[in-house]
Amino acid sequence: MKIAVFHNLPLGGARRTLYEQIKNLSKRHTIDLYEIGYENHLLEANEFVKFRKKYDFTLENNIPGIFNRLIKDYRNFISLRNLQRKIAGEIDTEISKILTEAQKKAIDNLTKHKSLLRKIADKLIKEETIEGPEFDKLFK
Questions:
Q1: pLDDT tens digit sequence for 66-106
Q2: Which end of the chain is less congested by CB atoms within 10 angstroms, N or C?
Q3: Residue 71, H or E segment
């Protein structure tokens, strides 16, 4: 399974836990890592991820004064919201690729085994059920 992980965790226990989760998940899954680039990337996770994308984002320095601070906070919020939408869009695109590929494989398999599927359908139309040994005979 392919898993997308997004993080913007600061240094500390939560980030270490995320690292351990990525490490364990990578044993059986493909991990793509998306992170916001303000000095809290998981450098040590490189060996466990297949794809990694770092997005540039910096908080604007807050100038003294409540009004200036509110303006800066609002700009940071809008900027971060737009970045999250961009990340979500990229993840959605990747999911669409996976689904399209899976659909093609399913259609190929159904086409490849069309005669067997017709045998099964004919048998089910006649008898409504097929028991295990009878079902196995159809494959031989």
A1: 767 777 777 778 888 888 899 899 999 999 999 999 999 99
A2: C
A3: helix 66-112
Which residues are within 8 A (CB) of 102 and not within 5 positions of it... i.e. 6 or more apart?
none
Go through 79-90 and write b for each residue having 16 or more CB atoms within 10 A of its CB, e for each that does not.
eeeebbeebeee
Residue 26 phi, psi dihedral angles, 5° rounding: -65, -15
Give the Cβ contact number of residue 24 at 10 Å. Answer: 11
Q: Kindly report whether the global pTM for this prediction surpasses the value 0.85.
A: no
Show the tokens assigned to 139.
Answer: 């494959």
One-letter amino acid of 33: L
Task: Quote the CA–CA distance of 6 and 9 in Å, as a whole number.
Answer: 9
Token pair listed for 53: 């994308």
Which amino acid does the sequence have at 14? A
Looking at residue 99, its pLDDT comes to 95
pLDDT at 58 over 80: no
